[in-house]
Amino acid sequence: MLQEKIKQLGLSDKEAKVYLAALELGGESVQNIAKKSGVHRATTYQCLEKLAESGLVTTEKIGKKIFFSGQYPHQLLTNILDKQNELKKKEVEIFNLLPELNAIFNYAKNKPRVRFFEGAEELKKVYEDTLYNNQEILAFLSVVKPDRDFLKWLYEYYSPERSRRNIKAKVIAPKEKGVEKYTSLDKNLNRQTKLIDPQKYPFSIEIDIYGNNKVAFMSYTTKEMFGVIIESKEVYNTMKFVFQLVWNNIK
User: Fold this and answer.
1) Which residues pair with 146 in a beta bridge?
2) What is the mean pLDDT of residues 230-250?
3) How far is Cα 166 from Cα 33, in angstroms, rounded to an integer?
4) Which member of 6, 12, 167, 225 has the lowest number of beta carbons within 10 Å of its beta carbon?
């Protein structure tokens, strides 16, 4: 069980075995660590070298022999934090490059473009795409029979991340059961919501209008989970006008 948990931190199956053996034995030879871990000696040595590069194993030369010791367990946490910091730096660098890259992309791709995404992990990419712009997101929302796990991801990651990036949102949603929980978070999440009669307008998917030229259609119900992104200035402008028309006429 411990070995499986260690693997989730980025180690291979054999690396996890070797690390735990080195941690338990203290300063030992490759031969003894291989025997303890049940991993072939040559493979054990390769694993130890990689673990040493990550700071999870220390080496000490005594005479002609090299002994390996498992580093303090808190080094695992240090490594994870270092990776997180590195990813954050890369995220900022990419975010700063996006306007220039998008300018090149839009110039080269002047024809409308349609992309399809299927399944939960792919659908998350659609929502994440809305985060790479500084413009307000306009959305038609539905909360009819949502997939609970995906809804949790939206509440716990997507909405807070959008707010953290200071991207505002205006939302039109049917006044259905469960929507009160959504609207109660508006103030904290840099969002405005207007509600409409679900009997007259029973939305069953979400539509996001964003990024100056994109419209996304998303469904995350218990029956289907998919997304479509249309990149077209004409489609974007038309959907934006439709949204503004509805928004301005909701009392």
Assistant:
1) 221
2) 94
3) 52
4) 12
Nearest CA to 131 among 172, 173, 164? 164
Residue 247 pLDDT class (50, 70, 90 cuts): very high
Q: Which residues contact 55 (CB under 8 A, 6 or more apart)?
A: 71, 75, 78, 79
* β-pair type (214-220, 225-231): antiparallel
Phi, psi of 201 (to 5 degrees): -130, 75
Cα of first residue to Cα of last residue in the chain, in angstroms, is: 57
Q: What is the pLDDT of residues 154-182, one digit of tens each?
A: 988 999 999 999 999 999 988 877 677 77
The set of residues, in sequence order, having a beta carbon less than 8 Å from that of 172 and lying 6+ positions away, is 139, 140, 141, 193, 194, 195, 196, 243, 246, 247, 250
Domains of the chain plus CATH, in order, are 2-72 (1.10.10.10), 111-248 (3.30.870.10)
Q: What are phi and psi of 54, to 5 degrees?
A: -85, -5
pLDDT on residue 201 = 87
**Cα gap 226→205, rounded to integer Å:** 10
| Residue 145 tokens, joined | 């029979």
> Which pLDDT belongs to residue 58?
80
